[in-house]
Amino acid sequence: MVLLEYSALPLLAVLLLVAIPVLSGTFRLGLFAKYLSLAFCAVGLVLAWGYGGILSLGQGIFFGLGSYMTAMYMKLEASAADPAAAVFGSGGAPLPDFMTYNSIDTLPWWWRPFQHVWFAIPAIVVIPAGLAFLLAYANFRKRVGGVYFSIVTLSLAAIMSIVIVGQQGYTGGANGITDLPTFMGQSVQSNTAVYFLYYVTACLLILAVLAGRFVLGSRLGKILIAIRDREDRIRFSGYDPALFKGFIFAMAALYSSIGGAMFTMQVGFASPSVCGIVTSIEMVIYAAVGGRLSLIGAVYGTVLVGVAKSYLSEHFVGFWLYLMGALFIFVPMFLPKGLAGVIEWLGERSRVK
Amino acid sequence: MTLATFLTQVFNGLSLFTVLALMAIGLAIVFGQMGVINMAHGELMALGAYMTYLTSIGFSRYLPSLMGLYFFVGIAVAFVVTAGAGFILERGMIRFLYARPLDTLLATWGLSLVLQQFFRQVFGPIDVSVPTVDWLQGAWIPSPDIVIPLSRLFIILLTFCVALSVYTFLFRSGWGLRIRAVMQNRAMAGAAGINTERVDAVTFAVGCGLAGIAGSALTMLASTGPATGQQYIVDTFIVVVFGGVESLLGTFLSAFLIGQMQSISELLLSGSMAKALILILVIVALYLRPSGLFTNRVRR
């Protein structure tokens, strides 16, 4: 068990980079890639919630931003390659098909920069993190904390899905943005692409866990934990807690956004269903099942819940929701540290013997 | 825009206000007074609505002659059943989580998923609706352009009655005194001989029962489905937070404001965009006044 604690990260790496690709076919690998994209959100939540004490019920916002920005770039790329779109787009930029259906005849200004990959990729990194920092810093500055911040993020997630569904002409509405065959000229649907994207996702995820560890191990991480436990003492010591909380919230948002971008590349669409309240709260349970204090646990938690979800919802449709509900009730009540807590407990027991 | 459309919209806002206010008063007690984040509050409202539906079926089957009165019985049944459910919920789950509000949030969200699926299996995935009783079927027509259904007027009256009873209960009854004492200072209340655990259970049950009454009222305005609760839960939380969590009057006024803003902005925007706009406005207002619009300044 002691061995398990030190070898957790190499074990995860072997599992993600060797075992899963070897043992699963292209279809299952695609599913795993989807879970790993969602795992970015769970890892981010461990940072923000487990260590920063900020329970965000709106990680779907940032996941959605990453996902939609990727989809916008890919859609414009697809439209540029489509001779029909060039005819409909009256001069200049090609129009995505859903805009034509909604009788919008020029590309909106905020879509234009996404024609270029050199804008899209930095935007995916910078915009969600920047927005998250502003939101968190402003609110924590005013000491809107704890539960209230959770409710604010929850309403923002609601707003995001309402606006996307409502503004069909600009966002693709409830259908989302679909038909995204290529990224930077490369097909994302071929067998090679499935493996390639899986490996990119897995490596980025491991990198995210490493970066999270680095931050938590640094002095910044210590202050963060101190803020979570006794915020006023840190304030009296001359630190600005809002700055630190803003930072960790932005980091979580960045992770979610990267996850969203990888998600869209692999599933080939962006949809309002991934930004809404239900998905956002589900992400919290991924982190809770794995253990809210364990970055690696969050990955396992997401994959476990994801596998259980796709297996059970295929075979026992009604039963799945009961199980999901029971998971939400059981884990916070009896396993506040999640699976990682169970492993830690087993480890301590073996050490006592 | 004519005056008539404007007035109709104001009246629609009043209807929205009634549902929001009934939901929010219950939530204000549970969340504001006890600090419990009950994400299943919406599902308890749906439970109340389904109970009203069952009562209407029971009356039409066994007591068709008294059909005109079923709604009053329905409200009582809805209140008793949801309050009972709330009592069980508090004893079985919430009381173990008082120290960890964010975990309560997750656990009650799980409960809401379970209840939704339960409704779907018991009552079916399709929305159900109740018959409107005879004496509420007409409409009040003050001018040819404005038609106000009597059932909606009745709901507004009901909302004020409920608000008044809640006020009386909290500020003029022995139980209310004990509840306020426990919420203000748990240790001192306990030392003065109040059974604080029992007060917790009763407070929570009353809050949930009010959600049941909100459900009854909702059956008059809209049909009920398994996902009905989820449509209202975010709005209700926003109403409570916007009004200032510790103030019942604030909750009432904020439900009024949000209901009116929503329905008046629907004149200019589509319904969903109006909702998004209102939510954004409330978030901004919360940023400017973090403790809500109406708060008692208390030294802590």
Explain what this protein looks like in three dimensions.
The complex is a heterodimer of chains A (353) and B (300). Chain A is mainly alpha-helical and 353 residues long. Chain A has one domain. Chain A is built from 17 helices and 2 strands. In chain A, strand 1 (182-183) and strand 2 (186-187) form a beta hairpin. Chain A is globular and about 70 Å long. The two termini of chain A are 12 Å apart. Chain B is mainly α and 300 residues long. Chain B has one domain: ABC transporter involved in vitamin B12 uptake, BtuC, CATH 1.10.3470. Chain B has helices spanning 3-33, 41-62, 70-92, 101-123, 150-172, 174-184, 186-191, 196-221, 228-243, 248-265, 271-288; strands at 139-143, 146-149. Classes of the chains: A mainly alpha (353), B mainly alpha (300). At the A-B interface, helix 8, helix 14 and helix 16 of A face helix 4, helix 9 and helix 11 of B.
What's the short story on this structure?
In chain A, strand 1 and strand 2 (186-187) form a beta hairpin. Chain A has 17 helices and 2 strands. Chain A is mostly helical and 353 residues long.
Blueprint (SSEs and pairs):
The complex is a heterodimer of chains A (353) and B (300).
Chain A: H1 2-6, H2 8-23, H3 26-51, H4 59-81, H5 83-88, H6 97-101, H7 117-141, H8 146-166, H9 168-171, E1 182-183, E2 186-187, H10 191-217, H11 219-229, H12 231-236, H13 241-267, H14 277-290, H15 295-315, H16 317-334, H17 338-352
Antiparallel strand pairs in A: 1-2
Helix pairs in contact in A: 2-10, 3-10, 3-13, 3-14, 3-15, 4-7, 4-13, 7-13, 10-11, 10-13, 11-13, 14-15, 15-16
Chain B: H1 3-33, H2 41-62, H3 70-92, H4 101-123, E1 139-143, E2 146-149, H5 150-172, H6 174-184, H7 186-191, H8 196-221, H9 228-243, H10 248-265, H11 271-288
Antiparallel strand pairs in B: 1-2
Helix pairs in contact in B: 1-5, 1-8, 1-9, 1-10, 2-3, 2-4, 2-8, 2-9, 3-8, 5-6, 5-8, 6-8, 9-10, 9-11, 10-11
